[in-house]
Amino acid sequence: MQIYQIDAFTCEPFHGNPAAVCLLDGPRPEVWMLALAQEMNLSETAFLLPEGEGWRLRWFTPRVEVNLCGHATLASAHILWETGRVGPQEEIHFYTRSGLLSARQNQGWIELDFPARFSEPAELPGGAAQALGVEPTAVRRWKENYLVEVASEAELRALRPDFAALKGLPLRLAVVTCRSETPEFDFLSRFFAPAIGIDEDPVNGATHCALGPYWGGKLGKTALTACQASARGGMLRVRLVGERVVLAGQAVTVFRGELLPFP
Questions:
Q1: Each residue of 88-119: pLDDT tens digit?
Q2: 198 Cβ partners below 8 Å, 6+ apart?
Q3: What is the pLDDT of residues 151-185, one digit of tens each?
Q4: In the chain, what are the helix, strand and coil shares in percent, each to the nearest 5?
Q5: How many Å apart are CA 135 and CA 23, to the nearest integer?
Q6: I want to staple 68 with a disulfide (CB 3.0 to 4.6 A). Which of 38, 40, 98, 166 is the partner?
Q7: CATH for 120-241?
Q8: pTM
Q9: d(Cα 73, Cα 251) in Å, to the nearest integer?
Q10: What is the DSSP letter of 76?
Q11: For residue 162, how many other CB atoms are within 10 A of its CB?
């Protein structure tokens, strides 16, 4: 079986968010996929298996299987086109725990069609603001996930959360965001999820399904450009289409390998 590592939401190696993509030779049990995700020790490992007119796609952190992952979906589409398993003009259909997702190429960018996530006003669980190190100007929530707006880029970039404290709180993830202070971007964000095995994700596509509608509403825009302000950094284009969000990014393959046959 072939396995690849791709840096997603970037056009430069060693930037963006690395994801592993494993092209399965047949169905594999969840315990095996989780073990491989732990071996890769990246925020996400994606598993692809041909199915019908598309591909079954599953995502695992080193700790759990997740329902939606943007950067590993981008990486999966990138490698299917790069290796010639899908023609360059063909749209890719992924069957996932979040329903049917699609990917297409558009002028050097990969566009992903994802479901929008609409958040509601909320309050952070007790101790979360201190653990994150934030002074929120707004807090939103969708399911057990929190969106926290702060006042400035300086505050966002300076965050050094207490991950041990965050892990013990009743929140799955927190995305901290602010309006951009330069015209290059509309908004910036950082992503923290120690409860699912990811202290900080360098570039998280799925949370932009919530960030897009939030900032689109605030800024009165349906097309936005986003920066994830992690140490590696990454850039996304976000387009709002009713109940869907189109995420666009680039990707680069860093290495390819082969899994040895084990009993």
A1: 999 999 999 999 999 999 999 999 999 999 99
A2: 43, 61, 173, 191, 192
A3: 999 999 999 999 999 999 999 999 999 999 999 99
A4: 20, 40, 40
A5: 44
A6: 98
A7: 3.10.310.10
A8: 0.91
A9: 11
A10: H
A11: 14
The Cα–Cα gap between 34 and 124 comes to 31
**Range(s) of the chain covered by CATH 3.10.310.10:** 2-105+249-258, 120-241
Alpha-carbon distance of 100 to 204, in angstroms, equals 19
User: Catalytic site residues?
Assistant: 44
Closest of 124, 114, 39 to residue 72, by C-alpha: 114
The C-alpha angle 164, 166, 168, rounded to 5 degrees, equals 75
Contacts of 115 (CB under 8 A, 6+ apart): 68, 98, 99, 209, 243, 244, 245
Phi-psi region of 49 (alpha: psi -120 to 50; beta: other; left: phi over 0): beta
